[in-house]
């Protein structure tokens, strides 16, 4: 249009949808210029980032190797045995570390009244020492393997448990429980990690439920 002051002004209008229809029909949208792309249109149909089904079959993630020693290729009974062993280890480790409070009055009777104020260290220090055990075991299990770290933890758990049982003083008992807690720390992260590594992605939630059931 021509303005009064001699300058022309252009007006840009957005593209309108093309309407089609007959005289007797209501008009409807046929095409829209600048419509969304096909990828954006399919985005609403995506239910996750991993495809577990393809052609009616389950996609195995991660893909197993042909090696018979691959943990993913273990027989079913072997995997359930691993779940039971690892969960039993975790249950005993956590029970001895955190379950002393239920029998703490009986433990106090084993020591003199002078040691009664320090006896609470049997409850507090083990919880603290579980964290370093967990912190150092995870990098080690990635570097040198899960099996040696798990076996070393079980050996340390057994030896420190005997140390606590044979201790003749409160200080010795506290030290033994601290080493026991370092070995028990693997029950928090490495134990579930072992269960996940021997199962496919679509199996992990059910198998971790079995692990937690045995542990508790």
UniProtKB/TrEMBL annotation:
Transmembrane segments annotated in the record for this chain: 80-104, 149-170
Keyword field contains Coiled coil: no
Domain Major facilitator superfamily (MFS) profile, first and last residues per copy: 82-216
GO molecular function, one term: transmembrane transporter activity
SUPFAM superfamilies: MFS general substrate transporter (SSF103473)
PROSITE patterns on file: MFS
Protein name: Major facilitator superfamily transporter
Organism whose genome encodes this protein: Colletotrichum salicis
